[in-house]
Amino acid sequence: MNNDYEKQTIEYENGEVQEEDVEQGNEINTEEAPQPSAQKKKKRKKKHYFLKLLILIAFCVALYFFLHSSLFNVKSIKVSGSTHFTAEQIQKTAGLKTGENLFDFSAGDCEDRLEENPYIQEAQVSRKLPSSIEIHVKERQEAAVIQMDQEYVVIDEGGFVLQIAEKAPRFTLLTDITITDAKEGEVVSVEEKATFQQMLRLVKAMQEADLFFKRISISGNTVSAYATDKLWCTGTASNLLTGMKEGNLKTVLYDLYKKKITKGIITIGDDQYYAFSKKIK
């Protein structure tokens, strides 16, 4: 009996491929044919992942050594915004110096160290490739001083304590204020809170009007702002604030200065009415 055969290609599990004569009419069950094992596929995937990981590690190592090469050593440090401190003092406080690597410090840590100083309100440290650092600071400015026992508490226009001095600095002295607590780097605590806030508004208006009062005191509704020990302005806080804002008070004081009048009382009434008396108590 003659049977007809045909050639068919069969791939085995081990990857070997052979052609065999298969009798016609007999179908091969492809589901029973050897298939590549799942275990071998997993091994190939693991090899690919491992190779990718090695490449990534090699890249990171190369990048690290490149960034820490002498190309990125700090050659210059620029400081801006500071009036109270020298550039060297700012650099030292920040913990920065030339010669160190540009990526060997934390900008945030440098900013925190700078802002620990009461005079520095805000600090910004930035890297400038390939070898420079820029430091910009925003400082608080002295505005007034309050006596506390035998010491003097220097504050900014918001009542923030900048320093506690043994000698009276040449800033506007706020009298009739009782300090309950004062620490550098914190807002001063006082008993007369409403009066103190009025004084701070007067100090701010004084600075904006380019005026200087040696001393400010408040008794009831009456404010006394001393240009000198023997020449002062008096009136309500509202009238003084308006006079400074509109420039009227500055004009009156300048007119007295030109006339070489160094003592007397300037009374500021409603509607910005000004009266001057040379008689002082």
TrEMBL record:
Compartment list: Membrane
Region (Disordered): 1-41
UniProt entry tagged with the keyword Membrane: yes
Superkingdom assignment: Bacteria
Ranges annotated as biased composition (Acidic residues): 13-24
Regions that span the bilayer: 49-67
Keywords carried by this UniProt record: Cell cycle, Cell division, Cell membrane, Membrane, Transmembrane, Transmembrane helix
Alphabetized Pfam families for the sequence: POTRA_1 (PF08478)
Transmembrane helix in keyword set: yes
Basic and acidic residues: compositionally biased ranges: 1-10
Cellular component terms per the entry's GO annotation: plasma membrane
Domain POTRA residues, every copy: 72-140
GO biological process, one term: cell division
Name of the featured protein: FtsQ-type POTRA domain-containing protein
UniProt lineage: Bacteria, Bacillati, Bacillota, Clostridia, Peptostreptococcales
